[in-house]
Here is the input.
Amino acid sequence: MSEVKKYVTDQIAQDIIDTASQGGITYWATEPTDEEFAGLPRGKKWTIVEGVDDTGWGGEREVDEVHYLDADQIREAYADLLALDQDHVNRQIHGYIVESWLERDEKRGIETSHIDADAADAIVQLAALGEIRYG
Here is the structure.
């Protein structure tokens, strides 16, 4: 894990969250309310709300669970998905994770251009839910 922590910096964890929230997780997660944001525990950085919001179409907002994440949880999920014997994602998404690791460097960390919305979705799901539940 220390090797992953060296290359998956706090900024890279933020980049993964940004990629996920711009399209990767939007089919299973919704925007947090002010109250959900306010519940962010000390030491956590991101609020992920598992659920749907259909209020724009006359429906209701349904929340399954609110998850609070930190950079270490993102790093742990990344490390789990990087493992050659991982069984969470298909070969294509695993390949993106591996490529990001193979192209890492000491100055920039992992190569985040390989972390697309699908890979970011898998990382966030694993970090928040402990499994790949959606998609």
In short: The mean pLDDT is 95. The beta strands are 29-30, 46-53, 61-69.
